[in-house]
User: Fold this.
Amino acid sequence: MMLKTSHFTVIAFSWLVSLASVSLADAGLESEKLVSLTIVPAEATVSGNGLSRQFVLIGTYADGFNRDLTLRGDWTLSDPDAGDFLTGGRLTARSTGNVTLTARFAGRTATSAVRVKVSEEKRPFSFRRDIGAILTKRGCNTTDCHGTVKGKGGLKLSANALDAKEDFGWIVEGGTFQVLTAESKGPRIPRVDKKNPEQSLILTKPTDDDHGGGKRFDVGSADYLAILQWIRRGAPYGEETEGSAAVVKVDVFPPEIVLEMSGQHQLLVTAHLSDGSTEDLSGQVMYVPTDPLVIEVSDTGVVKPLKPGETSILIRAAGFAVSTRVGVVQEAVANYPEVRSRNFIDRFVFAKLRKFNVVPSELSSDAEFLRRICLDLAGTLPPPERVREFLSSIDPDKRNQLIESLLQSPEYVDYWGFLFSDLMRATFVTSNDAAMTKAYEDWVVNSIAANKPYDQMAREKIAATGFSAPARNLQYVGEPLAPEQIMAEQIRIFWGKRLDCAQCHNHPFEIWTQNQFWGLTAYYGGLEELRGSKVFFDRLDRDWGKPVAHPRTHAKVSPTFIDGTPLSVDERLSPRARLAEQIIASPDFAEAAVNRVWGYLFGRAIVAPVDDFRATNPPTHPELLDALAKDFRARGYDLKQLIRTIVQSRTYQLSGEPNDTNRDDKINYSRALPRPMEAAVLLDAISSATGVEEHFKYHAMAGGADRVPPPGTRAMHMNPDLCPSQFMDVYGRSMRKQAPLGPPEPTLAQALHMWAGQTYTVKIAEKGGRLDKLLAKGSSDAEIIDEFYLAALTRPPTNEEQSQLLGLLSGHPERHQQTLQGFVWALLCSGEFATNH
Amino acid sequence: MLVLERKILSRAGRWGRIALLALCGTCFTAGELRAQPVIKSVFPSAAQQGKTITVEFRGSNLGNAYALWADSPGLEGLVKPAESIDEPPAPQSRSAEPNSKSARPPQPVVVQLRVDAAARPGTHRVRLVCPNGLSNAISFFVTDQPVEMEAMQAQHTPKDAQAAQVPALINGRLDKSGQVDGYSFMASEGDELNFEVIQTQELKPRLALLGPSPSWFSTERLERHLFVEERQSDLVPTEARGTFRVPRAGRFVIQVASLFGQGSVDSTYLLAVSRGDNAPRRVSPPSSEWHERSFTREIESSWLSSVQARAFKMQELGALSHVVEPTVAAAVPDGGEVDTRLSADTAQASNADVIDGKSESGIALPAILEGTIGKPADIDSYRFNVRVGDEIAIEIETPETHLPAFNPWVAILDSENREVFSNLHRRVSLFNNNAERQVYIAEVVPKIVHRFEKAGEVTLQVRDITSKYGDATYRYRILVRPQVPHIGEISLGGVDYLNLERGRAGRVTLTTSYEEGFSGNATFVFSGLPSGVQAFPSDTVVDRKAPTQITENAQTVLAPTSETTLVLAVSPDAPLTRMPQVVRIECRALEQGKLGPALLVRELPMMVVAEGEKKP
Assistant:
C-alpha cells in the first residue's frame, strides 16, 4: 500500500520550531529589540467595594513578538493611596480618583488612565452573574458534570449557566430534570436549606471529597462564602432588580498568543455590560486548554508553556464561552526570509507564520502547480500534451492564464457541480424518484455552470417551494422531512453550525438553546405539499402544515430567528424566504461559505471541520476568514471569484516540499499538504492515466439495469444512488446521506483493491488503452515511461527514475510487456498518484 | 340504435344475465384481447405537408398489417407487403462499427404515407389495421417546414455532429442506451434560438447546447451553454426545450440525449431548432370530448352556453360580464376613486375597472375574471355579493403557464377575511407510513362549487399557491357563475378504440360526472355498431375495500360520479370488419321521465376480428 496514510490526518496541533536561538535575557538586547510598551487596558475603571482589575504589560519586539512583561515591569500609581497594586498586575481600588498607572521596562514607559470609584454601594445581586459564575468557574455545569443532557446525581444545570432561570429553579425549588417534558421527576427537594444554610446540598456536596465530581472548593473559600451569603439572604434570584446591568458580551485579550518556552502570558477576560461599563472576569472564569500537554492555565488566567505546539483555550464564563489560540514556539528564526505576497490572503497567512517563526515553503514547481490546480478546479489530470505545453512555456503569466482556462472549462462545472451535489445531497432517497433526483442535481450543476451568486443559490434552497428543483430535497423516501431535520441541515450547510444537539437539549458546547432550535424549526412548520403534483408551499399564514411544538413544554412555537427576532405577521406568507434573508444577512453565511471553499482547496479549512463553527472551535486565521468573507460579500457572493482569489495566492501555490521550520505544520498553510482524491476523482484519474474509460451502468432505480450513460461520462457525473460502483464504494464516496464530513480514511479494502481490483489491474492492459496504443505505434521504453509519468503524475520522470526503470525493463526482455504493465500499476498505486499534493 | 339507461342497465337482470351466460365467460375489456396489435414507435414521426414518405412502424403483433388509419383527416397510407421490405427507410446505410446504431428489430411495418397539402399542422394520431384488429394510436407530426432525417452513423461527439441549417426540424432516434445525437449549426451573434423536442416515443429527452470553445483538456469536448431557462429558473423543467441568445458567432452543437441512458430502436424524437418566434406551427385538433375539470379548457364567452347545453333545461343566468385586471398599475386615475361596478352588458371592462386586481365594489355575476399573477406573492382580489342559498360555481383556467409551475389557489373569504372555501383538495389519509391519521393537500382543482349559508359581501382571492413565482405568463381566467345542474365529463377509462372478437364480448365502463347538483340519470346511445354486435348492460363492480383516504371538502372540489358498464357482445357469425367502423356514443340526460338533448361522448373506431386461439 503506497498511500501515505500519515498525510491523511490533517487535524493536529503539534507544533515544533527549532532554529537559531535569540536570547532576550540580556538587558541591553532587550532595549534594542523592544519596539513599544503598552498597558492593557489603556483606560479602565475600577469601581465598587473591594473590586479589582487585572492589567497586562505588553512589549512589542522587533521580531514581531508581543511578550507579556507584567511580572518584569516596574509599576507605579500616580496616587499610591488610590489602590493596592499587586505583583501580578492586579489593582484593587482603595480611594476614589483619577490616577495614572505607569509601567517601565528596558527604558520604555507605558501608562493607563484609571478611574477609581470606591463606594459602599454594591452592585445588585444577580444569580446569573454571581452564583452562575461560581458554578461555571468551578466546572459544576460542564457537559461531563451537571451540565450534561440529563444532569448528574439528579441535579441538572445548564451548560455555562446559559439558562440561569432554570438553574435557579432546580437549586432553590429542587426537582429532577426530564428531557421530554418541563415537569420535574419525583419530589422536589431544594438544594438550599434556608433554615440551616451550611447544610445546603449546594454547599455540602462540592466541599465533600466523596462528591461524584470531586471536591470543587473548600469550606470557607471565597466561593463557599459567596454561596452561603446568598442562601442566608433567602436565596433570591435578584437579576431583574432595577438598575442591574446585564452582561452582553465577554471577550478575551489577547485573541492569539505566541509564547516562547521561557515566557508566560496573562489573559484578560472582560465582561461588557448593558450600561456600557466593563468588568474584569479574569479570575472568575474557567480556563480549559484544548491540548493540556502544550500549556497550562492558572485559575487567574496565567498561561504557561509546557511544550512547543498550538492549542486553544476555552474560557467558560456564566452564559458565555470564548476562546483564544495559543502557539508555543521554541526560539525565534534568525534571518527570516522576505516572503512576497500576491494578495491579501498571503498577507494574513504569512504574518501568522512570521509570528510563529515558521518559514513557508518555496513556490511550487510548475508541474506541482499544474497537477494541483487541475485536480482542484477540474477534478481531472491534465493530458500529457498539455503537461508538456505548460512546462515548456516561459510566459510569466502562464499560471493565471491556466487558472482562467480551467475556471471556464466544462470540467470545472463537472467537478464543482459534483462537490456541491455532495454538499447539497442530491440523492435518490429524498424524492424517491430518479428523474426528480436528476432535476435537483441539474439545479446544483447548472447553478455552478451559471456561476449563480451563492446567496441566490442559498435563497433558492432555503426557501425552496413550488415545483422547483431544490424542493426535491424536502422529502425522505417520498414523505415530507420533519421540519427540524430540514432546518438543521440548512444551518449546517449555510452557517457551518451543528445545531442538531440543541434539538433535545441546550447545546452542550455552545450558547445555542433548545428554544432557539425550535424557533428556527418553526419557520418550516407551515410546509405543505400538493401530493398530486409534488408542489411545495407554506401555509403558516393560515396555521396549516404541522405546527411546531416544543418537545419539552409541548407549547406551539412561533418562528423566531436565532437572535430572538420573531417572524412578523406580514412575513408569514413566505416564512422561509424571510429566513433565507436572515441567514444570508448574518456574517456566518459568508464565513461558512469561504471556509468550505478554502477547505476544498487546502484539505483543511480555517475552521475545521468545516461544519463545526462555534466559539469553542475557533478559526486558525480569524482575520483571514473575516477578510475572505468580506471580499466574498463585496463581490456579490461570486464563487468563481472566490476560488480565483484563493488559487492565485502564493499560499495556495506553495510547494508541498517542507523545510526545517514547517515540517510538522498541519494547520497554518505554510506548505501544501497531500490530500487523498475523492473516490470519483481517483477513478477518473485512473481512467485518464490508462486511457481506458470506465464503463458505468445505471441502477435499476434509474429505469433499468441494462442502461448505460453516454461515452465519456466521468465518475463524478454518476449519482451514487443511481450508479453502482464497487470501486467508489471502497474508496469511500459520499452516499449523500448527510453533508460530507471530510476525506475518507484509508482502508484495508483499498489496499486489496489495488492488488486485485479490476480498476487497477484490467485497465492497464486493456486493448485500446494508453499502453496498448504506445506499444502498437512502437514507442520506446523511454517514451512510454515519459508518457505515463506525464499522464499519471503530471511530471516527467527524474533522470534517476528514468534510468532505474529502463534498467528494470531491459532486465526482463522475455516479460517486457508484463514489466511495463507492472510499472504502470506501480505508478497508479503510488501515493504521489493517489493524492492531490 | 340502442338506448340504455343507467339504473335500468344495472337492474337488467335476467335479460342481461342470459346474454352474458351465453357468451360463457368470454368477456374481456379492451386491454384483455389476446394478440392486440401494439405500435411502440413510428419512424420518421413527422413529415411536411404535401409530401409522401416511407415510415416504419414498430411494435408487437403488427404482422400482416394492411392499412393505415388516421384519427383525423389529411393522412393516408399504403402498407407495403412484408416481403417487399428490403431496406429501412433511412437515406444512409448503418455502419457496422461497434458504436453504430443497432440492427432493425423484428416486425417493422413499412408504410408509404402521404400527407395532404392541407393537412392540419400539428400532432395527428395514426394506427395500423391488422387482421387481429386495430392498433393503438401513435403521434405523427405534420408541419409546413421541411423535415430532416438524422444521419445513421454514430454522432455522439461534437466533432461528429451532423450539420443542420436553422430552422431545422430533425427526426432522430437514439437506437441504444447511452447514445447521444448531435447536430451542428452556425449561429450569428445576437441570434435568438429556440430548441424543442416536439415529440418523442419511448424516450425522456434531454437537450444540451454546446458552444464553439473547446475544453482545455480535450478539443473533443465543447463548453456547454445554459439555456435561458436553465440559467434563470429553478423550476423542474417539464419539457425538453430551451432558448438561447448567441453571445458571439460560431459553430454550435445541440445534443439530444436521454434520461439515464434510455435508448432503443423505438426511442425516437423530433427536434426543432428555430430562430425568434418561428417555432413550428401547431394547431390543436378539435376535440369532441367534453373537458370540464381541466385547467386548460378555454373559458371564453361561449363557455357558459356550452355548459348550459349540457343541462337538462336552459336557465336564465343573466349577462356575462368580463373583468380584466389591469396589467399597468398606472391605470389608477390621479387620487380618484374608481367605480368598478360593472354593467351587466359589459363585454370587456376597461383597465380602470379593477385596480391591481382588487375591485373596489362588487362585480356582477356571472363574470369572467381575467388577470395575471404578475409577480411573486401577487394576490388579486374581487368582491361580490351573495345571498343566503346562492349556489355558485367557480371555474379556473390557466391559459399560458400551467401546473405544476402555476398552481392557482382560489379562495372565497368572508367579510372578516376568513376562508369560506377554496380549490385546495384536502384529504385525510387513514393509512400511511406512520399509521397516523394525517390530513394532506392532494391538489388544486380547476372547479369548485358552493352553497352560501350567509349573505353578504365576499372576496374572491386568487394567487399562486407559492409566494415565489409569478410573471406575465401566470395568467388566469376565472368564471364565477350560478350553478347549472348538468352532465359533466364522461370517461371511458382511457379506451379510444375497440377490437371485438367474434363470438366473444367486450366491456366498456363509462364514468359520468354529475355536475352542480344534476339529479337525473345519464343514458347512453350507441350508433354505428358493426353488424352482429350488441350492447348489453352489466353490473357495476363495487369496490369493497376499506377506504384509505377521505376527501374533507368533497362537496366543493369533486363532482359525484356514476359508473355504467356495457358489454358489447359479438355473435359467433358476425361478419368480420376489414376496416374500423366508427361507433358514436352519445349521452342523454333523463330527468322527470324526459330525455334531454344528445351529447356526443366519443367516436370510437371499432373492429370485429376473428376469434383467437382459446386460452388453456
About this structure: Helices of chain B lie at 6-10, 14-23, 228-232, 303-309, 554-557.
